[in-house]
TrEMBL record:
<protein>
    <submittedName>
        <fullName>Carbon monoxide dehydrogenase subunit G</fullName>
    </submittedName>
</protein>
<dbReference type="InterPro" id="IPR023393">
    <property type="entry name" value="START-like_dom_sf"/>
</dbReference>
<dbReference type="InterPro" id="IPR010419">
    <property type="entry name" value="CO_DH_gsu"/>
</dbReference>
<feature type="region of interest" description="Disordered">
    <location>
        <begin position="157"/>
        <end position="204"/>
    </location>
</feature>
<feature type="compositionally biased region" description="Acidic residues">
    <location>
        <begin position="161"/>
        <end position="173"/>
    </location>
</feature>
<dbReference type="Pfam" id="PF06240">
    <property type="entry name" value="COXG"/>
</dbReference>
Length: 204
């Protein structure tokens, strides 16, 4: 399988390079990534959950960065095992080019081999899933480096705010109801809103 894509990121080249080497940003950007930790010099242990068509599995693997030419390029060599789901291994050449002082063009070409159930579901489905995962990665990555909120997070935040507003409205309704009952009880007890019992007795 071979996959080539280019993306323009709205941040300077050095900022893009630093983010590509930041495990916290990478973990937040890689779809299904459970953990990414340093595993030697320029190497990382990775754990992630992947769904490709009917095949769903948790992969554990290793990434190693080679041919490092900061802040212009490096090659990622990767391999992972997903049990009965199969395995994947290969490499990806990543290059960064400044488009201007505030934007960077990232291009990568990935070559991969897969085996097991993944290899049995068809190259078209695998390629489509790989492109979808890559697209989601760069959407999240761009949001991370620019400090923006991705659509899903924005929707979640909006939902939380709506829930808070609903709870506040419910509290106000309940407060009004309780106050109304208290006022009614006080009126019944003191005679507020009606003639006092002394005035009623004075008629006789």
């Amino acid at each position: 399988m071979e996959l080539t894509e280019s993306y323009t990121l709205p941040v300077p080249q050095w900022r893009t390079w630093e983010a590509l080497n930041d495990t916290t940003i990478l973990q937040a950007s890689i779809p299904g990534c459970d953990a990414i930790e340093a595993d030697g010099e320029n190497a990382y242990a990775v754990s992630l959950s992947v769904s490709v068509g009917p095949v769903k599995a948790r992969f554990k693997g290793r990434l190693e960065l080679t041919g490092i030419n900061a802040p212009h390029a490096y090659t990622i060599v990767f391999e992972g095992q997903g049990g009965a789901a199969g395995f994947g291994k290969g490499s990806a050449q990543v290059t960064l080019e400044p488009e201007d002082t505030e934007a960077t063009k990232l291009t990568y070409t990935a070559h991969a081999q897969i085996g097991g159930k993944l290899a049995q579901i068809g190259s078209r489905l695998v390629d489509g899933a790989a492109r979808k995962i890559a697209g989601e990665f760069f959407k999240r990555f761009s949001a991370q480096v620019t400090g923006e909120v991705v659509d899903g997070e924005a929707a979640l935040a909006a939902g939380d705010n709506a829930d808070d507003a609903d709870e506040a409205d419910d509290d106000e309704v309940e407060k009004s109801r309780v106050e109304g009952e208290e006022e009614a009880g006080e009126s019944a007890h003191t005679g507020k809103g009606s003639k006092s019992w002394k005035a009623w007795i004075s008629k006789f």
